[in-house]
Specification:
Layout (H helix, E strand, L loop, with lengths): L2 H25 L3 H19 L39 E2 L8 E5 L1 H12 L6 E3 L3 E5 L3 E3 L4 E3 L17 E5 L4 E5 L5 E9 L13 E8 L2 E3 L2 E21 L3 E3 L2 E18 L4 E3 L2 E3 L2 E3 L5 E6 L4 E7 L2 E2 L7 E6 L3 E10 L11 E3 L7 E6 L4 E2 L7 E2 L35 E4 L3 E6 L12 E6 L6 E5 L10 E9 L6 E6 L5 E3 L9 E9 L7 E5 L3 E10 L26 E4 L9 E2 L8 E4 L8 E2 L1 E2 L12 E6 L5 E2 L5 E2 L6 E2 L4 E7 L5 E7 L1
Parallel strand pairs: 1-3, 2-4, 3-6, 4-7, 5-8, 6-9, 7-9, 8-10, 9-12, 10-12, 11-13, 12-14, 13-15, 14-16, 14-17, 14-18, 16-19, 17-20, 18-21, 19-22, 20-22, 21-23, 22-24, 23-25, 24-26, 37-39, 38-41, 39-42, 40-43, 44-47
Antiparallel strand pairs: 27-30, 28-29, 29-36, 30-35, 31-34, 31-36, 32-33, 32-35, 42-46, 43-45, 46-47
Helix pairs in contact: 1-2
Length: about 675
Amino acid sequence: MSTSSSSIAISLLAVVMLALGYTFSRERTTQQQLHDQVAQLQRQMNQLATTTTTSSVDIAHPEHRFLPTNEKQDERSLTCACDMPSGFTYASDFGVIGDATADDTLALQAAIDSASANDSGGIVVIPKGTFRIFEPLIVPAGVTLQGQGYGDSPLAISFDAGASTIAYCGTDYAVKLEGHAAGLRDLAVYDWPYGTDCENIQAAGGVLVEADAALVESVIVSNIFIYFFLGGPALSLVAKNSAGIAFGNYQNVRIRHAKHGISLQAEESSFVNSNSFLAGGMSGGGFEVGVIAQGPGACNDNKFYGMFIEPPDTTLTHVYVSGAKTNVKFHDVRLEATSKSLDKPIVIIDDSSYGNVMNGLLGHTHVQANLNRNPDIDLMSAKSVGMDPAPKNLYWNSAFKGYNAEDRMMPGFSLVGTNAAITILEDSDEMLFPDHNVIDVDYLNYGGAFKLMADITPKAPAHDFVTFGVYARSSVPSSISAAMRYESGNIIASASHSGGGDWEFIGMTALYDKSAPYFYFSITGDVQLTAPTFIYGKTPAIPGASLMSSSGARMSGTLTMGVTTVYPPPDATQYYWVIPKNSGNIFLIDTQGNPSRSIIRLNHRTADRFARGTLATLMFEEAGTRVKNNSYIKLKNNADFVSGPNTSITLMAGGSASWVEVSRNE
């Protein structure tokens, strides 16, 4: 009986005896029963001791794996020479050398193929060393190539720090990941320049994730150093022939010296979508572009978190995005270009691309993009700034005030069609927003859709997007949807009401046709509506009435103005009256029982002056107070104003100490 078998048996005996003791105490097993059980166990142990073991593995002292010393590739074993339980696949078992001289192509590929064929574990472990290869390593679905790290420097290859380096000498990509869940971890990939057989050869790229007429999902590339690929992309994701690459995870990919850092490309009818790049980054020289994403296929929703992109300069730009179906999402990204000319952009977004998201640090130069199509670009510096649309509701009667039932007219809106009966619900209990009426639309089930739309559509050529919608309540499924003319000229519609009987916001955000803008609510069932909103730009909807702005205002509700009382000045300055700023526009003149007073100056001191264009109405309860015409208060026909009971005069501030009469009520 072997030592390990004896140890196992003794341990088993101890456990059984403890269990029996527990059983004895719990179930009152008799002493004779316990004695019989122990005797039976002893007989089993004696039988085990006479049995010869045939185990080929000593767990405490595993056999060394076969490692040939002959450097010639064709004399090395390309099949696993160990008798080990299934687990990791060790490249050493397939004869890799890793001395920066021998050709390790066939040995590494044989290890990968063994893992792919389920002959060994799916993770192929390569030891420390520099492994020269002359053909691309093809990593298929479910296989991960894992090294021992890329050494002690993120700036150059370390050959003496326990690193695993794939040293490629060829004109293709060094490593190709070609299936679901293929992986690459903890190693360096180097466009090898040494030796007479490699010094004039330049690779097409470093690591390629390729989908050709197939879907490739969940690729994982982690803790990889990609070095000196000046002939093409360090890391490239390419989908072609109606293929797709999605949901990949790329962590701490460090790129040093490359033509392109990270390249994402979707050919027509293919897609590269929703891949994530976490941390890592790129630096060094030779860059044409840092990150490039391009169509014509769908290449969007690829996210970059906490990455740095800081080559001193790039011949094109640090980030380039092109294609109507292409965008990127950069979060907390650092962009720097210490040697780039200040008139060259660090980011270029083609005019056809929209929906890009960028925030973080912009260290130099500026962003070249249509910010109205990309309002979530928030990179800001002394050379560039992001832009958000103005949050102003352009439906000026969004409170649905002033409906004339006899003429079927609603200020600010057109009611297109006679196939609906309109009722205003003015009960505050029905209101979803304060002072916003609810309109009840009784659809009459003929003549197609009833349309509610603005009577005049304001134009904003600066904006490419529009956001609009309305709160709706209905028990009829698909009773209402928002519709508009898309930039292509086609009519598109939002999701419709569920018919669940609750308030739902029905709306959309999309690119609109600037040449013929057209927006409306399409109603085909009974529905109640309130608080419509219309905003140019890609922004969340803002239901409710809009505040007045510097560009103007229209109101359908009541305008309430501030009112304050004004008392006479001291006797020493009895003709110099002061009406308080920021207290309203209507001033009740209290003469303190002496109406025979005169007003020659208003707010003569600089600190008290109103802004030019401010209107102030002076209201008099008593007769006899005179507002004198002079160079500071210019009155109509140069005639003084003398108050009568309950009269008023309205003046406009000239911006200095002067005022001009607007109107009077004598």
